[in-house]
């Protein structure tokens, strides 16, 4: 019936979206959901170009970054994806996902995301560790990153300088700028307090 997979998917997604009354949150995960799955690149992918043209503008499109599990996210990549999809992407961040290897648990701070990304995003979803309690640090440090992004949006001059900084430089603390190390220390402080609180509960 359809000349391509992208047109088939867009047609079905649009129909469901309309049938549900065009809700404010409606997410579509494309078959090519990261750069490594695109041929030859996101901006030259016939599949993504078709989705950008055919999907109704209210439908959010999920993107994981350069890879399925992306160690880094840059503003340049998000600009490319926004251009081809004709909308800002929703990042589905697999930085902490361990469902592909449950012998590992990821407890480091949220990092590798260039400062000043928020204006390039429609939203961000964090795919956590399968083990519930192990996600305290990931979610806590994501909150710290988010607050620093809000400050950057409030002070655009600072955001511009931060966006120009290399991703590796995000380790060094600067006033008003997200520091993974400082975020980790804050998270550990609060996590220890939470563990101690739970230890004092009756029956623990």
TrEMBL record:
GO biological process: glycoprotein metabolic process
InterPro entries from the UniProt entry: GH, Glycosyl_Hydrolase_84, O-GlcNAcase_cat
Single Gene Ontology MF annotation: beta-N-acetylglucosaminidase activity
Name used for this protein in its record: OGA GlcNAcase
Location of the GH84 domain: 1-150
Pfam families the record matches: NAGidase
Recorded name of the encoding gene: Mgea5_2
Signal peptide: none
Top-level taxon: Eukaryota
